[in-house]
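USER:
Try writing one entry.

ASSISTANT:
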Amino acid sequence: MNTIRLIIVAVGGQGNLLASKVLGEAALAAGVPVRMSEIHGMAQRGGVVESAVVVGQAGSSLISDGEADILVGFEPSETLRALGKCHRDTVVITNLAPLPPFTVAIGRGVYPDLDRAQSLIREKTKQLIAFDAVALAKEAGNVMALNMVLLGALIQTGLLPITAEQVQAAIRTKTKADLAPVNLKAFALGMAAAVS
């Protein structure tokens, strides 16, 4: 089995850590070796949260610049910021609904142009799957299901040796019982959004 290196980037409160836990649980259920690590940057105040998930045989969960095979971005500017982790054959999945940082809100920063950001990502990687995942999370019944929408898109690519059924089972065990129906619907909507 090939080693697959996945980076998930978000801002605090978007559910990055839950998404990586669900993915890790599904990998274990599939009998696939998995290593994970997390970086929390002032997450409770909307700072960067980055998860590294390495599927397959690997000595470390660290992913250096130019090593990520897959990048999943919950927020467009964070996806752009993590582009240095990618290489020419990386597949990038990103939410297009911006969550501007505080510096932009107070006029001390400028949010990147989304069209230009997408062009740059397409130039530097193999494939970009970009859509408004927040709208799909709302359609599922809860904006906080953004993470499950993007997890659905990731699984739809077929890049990981993990099935939709294994992820759905992990969603049922790793999320609160009353939220599972919304999360499962969000996952299905994300899978549908990633169909090319």
Summary: The chain has eight helices and six strands.
